[in-house]
Design goal:
single chain, five-stranded antiparallel β-sheet, ATP_grasp_MvdC, ribosomal S6-glutamic acid ligase activity
Length: 332
Amino acid sequence: MHLSRDVVLLITHSGDFFTIDRVTEAISKRGAQPFRLDTDLFPLEVQLTAQFDNSKSYHTIEYGSHSISTEQVQAVWLRRIWEPKLGAELAPQFQQACVRESRATLNGFWDSLKDARWVDHIDRVDAAQDKLRQLRVASEVGLTIPKTLVTNKAEAAREFFQQVKGKMVSKLLTHLSHSMQPTASSSFLYTSAVKEEDLQDAESLRYCPMVFQEQIPKHLELRVVYVNGKVFVGALDAGIYAASKADWRKPGVDVGAWLHHELPDEVVRRLQAFMGKFGLLFGSLDFILTPSGEYVFLENNPAGEWGMIERDLDLPIASAIADALLEKRDEG
């Protein structure tokens, strides 16, 4: 079936649920046509055709019984891009080549959608992933950030440990997992507390630099979801899961119930300025509220998770994303 109405392309993967379903429903209620593209099913179950000549270029996507063309896509929600599942029947020596070609073909399709409204465009999301740039920009707009050291020098890490009086955590600059619900075999590495004995044999840093930060005292941990100027907040009482020491996202940690929370206007204004610097309409940000009442920015996840706070707190995040996607059409 060829869809004729305004199409909103939803870029995700076959294991995605709840958030994608809520946004799909919200788009349909607004009279537009959602088209879900599970990137991990390309090329085995999704067909893409691109034609080029001197007058124009033309792309079509076929998935199941539905097909769309580039011209129909009014807006794009970049939720997730996963690598293809190619199956064991493909010889190992061809696997990586096929993955590269599939990725390059999809990149061409994304380029053909340059005139659509993106939340958010892949180039902006990629640029916004830079955690060190995030810290710099957050500081510039007046958000409080933790003292931070990035180094591949063991002695520098030991000196920083002393500077922060032994209250130090470590993390990576990049995420190694697609999901906030990793399996036992996942390579996701969480923020972890650092002890002095951990630094006695830290020479392996020369192989891979790491991020070290002062450990901020926690009253609440906040997941702040930003959508086109609007802010939605879920809070966790840090005292409930104190045994986890550093990262509430670790599997098996009982974090207790999500709580409603409202950011001060001044923090909201600075957050809006931060997102504006990156040109982003969406972000899933982590903050700490300290026992003394200070809001400390940790990081922004440009395509981060939010389903848990919509589900538990009945926050209209999916509705806000649908509004952001269709804003240009509504203005027209």
